[in-house]
Every structure is written in structure tokens, then in C-alpha cells.
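User: Hand in any protein.

Assistant:
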Amino acid sequence: MEYIFLEKESKIYDFILFPQSIYFTRELEKIDKKNDNYIDVVPESLKNLYLEIEEKLMPYSEEIESLYFSDFNIWDLISKNFSIVHYSSYNSFFSMLKNLENDELKKILFLSLYSIRETKDFNKVSISDIQFLLDNDLSHFDFINSLSIDNSDKWKITNIIRNPAKTIDNWINLLEKLKDLFDYYYKQSRPRIISYGNSLVERLNKHNGENLSSITCGILDKSVLPSGNICISFINQCNISLFNLKNNSYSTFGLEVENMLNLALKAEEGHLAELITTFKNLGDTTRYKVLKNISNGITSTKDIANSLGVSSATVSYHINQLNTSKILKLERVNGKYINSVNIEWINNCISKLKKDLKL
């Protein structure tokens, strides 16, 4: 399989997703609630760029939020059926959408919505199921109500289904309003997009795609990519997306995703090393007894040595190891430095252990 960087399609993809940037702050809050360490490797320059774009989009928030929802957007519904591959500009892509009849658009939207609804029967959906929805307006509400999305988003989808052709027109009008703003930011990133796109496909072609696993830190291998068509995104800089379509499938790689995956892997390896060090230190009997003494308020090296029947030097050695592994921490109390149990670190280690073991 030959890997090809699609420069024009990359711009179309980013232009379509550009309004979604208005949700950046809300997405950050979701990640923080999950205590996801992935956010720690997002470059500050990228955070600042997204925040700047978000602020610029605020005057259009009402129009954007009618088409781009908190969990998915109008593009998620369209992209499952139509590819941007081989389109020279977003104008040509949207001209194709504008030529579709209302009923055809409804059929496409209902097919896409099945992928959002939480059902094991998604792959068994027949054309007759879709046709039933198209022929029975009253069934629209029941179907939309069955989707696992916010109620406000259900209402927006209902409005889209009523007149999808008008929705496409509204979508095009919104993007036209944002075109100059998008071009301003895209122009800044275009040299990096071209450079990374050419570099990525060159490396993949050199090794016949066998190095995709190492490039993505084990997340993907060559069998997963739906085709060799690759877009590079500055809007979705932290993600890899796969669009597996009947014709002209493609993948998108974020500008920063490769760097972030490597940083996240190193951070994960560092966390794992610290976790192992912590539990190894708790595995020494004398060291554990030293820790128990300190936890019970006995902080004097001499007193701990006397209670355990060992030398003060031995106790000092174990305290040093416990400090190095973060099990103990130094605190200043009444002008004196004393060792205390690092409760926060121990709780973090226990939480990490439970997560790893799925307890």
C-alpha cells in the first residue's frame, strides 16, 4: 500500500472542524475531571492557540452550537457517508452536499445516528429499518430519544432531521462567515502541515507501513489504517482519526500527536518506575517498621533505632530511601524539619495499582 499525503483535503478537513474549537475549555474541564495525565503533555503553545481561537469564535457561538454539539457534530454525521478525498476545495465538497435531496440527506443522517446510539445491533441495521423511519415521522422522536446524548442535543438533531437541506445551507453560511478567520490561522500552520505530512508518508513508504506501530507508540499498526490516504490536522492536533468508507477511505493525523504520544509514553514509563520503586521500598521489613514509627509520630532517628534494635546509621539509610521514593516527605514544623508520611503519594500509588489491575 502506498501512503499519500493529501494537502488539499487536509485543509478541507480542518476548515470543517474549525468551529468545534469553541468547546476547547469545556473539553479541558472534562479531561481534568478524569484526572487524565494526557493533558500534561499538551504543549502550552497549543493550549494558548486553542484558547485564542475559542475566544475569536464566541460571537458565533449560537450558530456553532446548533450544528456542533458537545459530544459530536454535523460533520460526524456526514463524514460516515461522504469522503473529502479527491475534492480540490471545500467549495466543491459542499456543492456536492447542496445537490442532495432532502430524503437522501435524511437517510444518510439516520444511518449515521445508528452509530451513536448504544446498540449491539448497529451492524445489522437494514435498509428497511431506515426506510421505516423515513416513512413514519412519529417514529423520529422515539428513535432520537433513544440516543445516549444530552437532551439539548436531541432537540438540535430533531431540527436537523426536519429539514436537512436547510441545515446544510446553514452550515455553509456559518463556514463562509468563519472563512477569513480560519485562513488566518491555517496560513500560520500550513508550512508545518506540509512538512509533517511529507515526512510521515516518506517514513511509512520507506518501511511499507511496518513502522506505524513505533510511530504511534503501539496504538496502531498498518492493518488498522483504512487506506494510504493521510491528512494532517492543526485543528485536531492531538488525535488520530480513521474514516473507513466504501470509497476513498482516509486517516487524519494531528500535527502534535506523534510528539505527544512519545511524551505520554515516557511519562507513563516514569510513573510505572516510580510505582515499582514505591512498592519495592515497602517490601523491606526494617524499612517498613521505620515507616510505621514515623507514622506513629516517632521521628527521632535515635528513638526509632532504639525501638527496632538497630543502629542510627541503619535508620538514616532507610529514611533516605523512603524520601527518595516519595513515601516520606520533609516538613517544617515549629522551625524544625521532620519526616512525615506522604499520604497523597501513597494514595496515588494505590489508585494507580487499582486502575492497572482493574479492581
Remarks:
- Strands lie at 4-5, 229-233, 240-243, 250-254, 328-333, 336-341.
- The chain has two domains: 4-263, 282-356.
- Residues 118-123 have pLDDT under 50 and may be disordered.
- The two ends are 42 Å apart (CA to CA).
